[in-house]
Amino acid sequence: MQHYVLESKPDRLTTRSNLRRRNVNIPSVLCPFCEDQEESVEYLFTACIMANKVWSGFSGWCSAPPLFIFDFKDIMEAHNFSNLSNKAKKIIHGLVIITCWCIWKGKSEVIFNESNHDSQDILGEVKSTGFGWLKYRSSFKHIRWVEWCKYSLYML
Question: What does the pLDDT read at residue 103?
Answer without folding.
Answer: 96
